[in-house]
Fold this protein.
Amino acid sequence: MLLSSSKSFIGAGLRGALLDCIAGYSALPRLAFTNTKEKGKTMVNTEAILSCAEEARSLAREVCPIAGVTLKQIFSRSRYDDVALARQIVMTLLTNRGWSLSQVGRALGRHHGTVIHARLAVADRYKRDRHTTHLVNRLARAGVRVFPDDKDS
């Protein structure tokens, strides 16, 4: 899905409205856009952003009831442990499904370095923390596999 032309341009005025539609909440963080500019317009691959954001919301809907957090909290700036863990699990699930670190970061309003940390943190906490182990196992029983080959990391 490309907006305004075959080169995937989107005007600054449309950005906020598009992102509100993607996120479903006006309070959710804005997605980052590429820094490539041509004739004063930011170039955006809206298809990839929409797809990753939609899959992030879908996975978050599956993780939220099991983790005991709300969808709005997953996409918030909250640093509460339960919220952060649920968000990190969603990031891990997205990267396991083939989304790049940048795409996952943009979909959740974070930097790609945060996504790297999330993957490492979930694997480490799974081995060391009973709460995380229990949560990951409950997700697996519900059909959401955090670790693709049923391994610990």
The chain has a mean pLDDT of 78. The two ends are 35 Å apart (CA to CA).
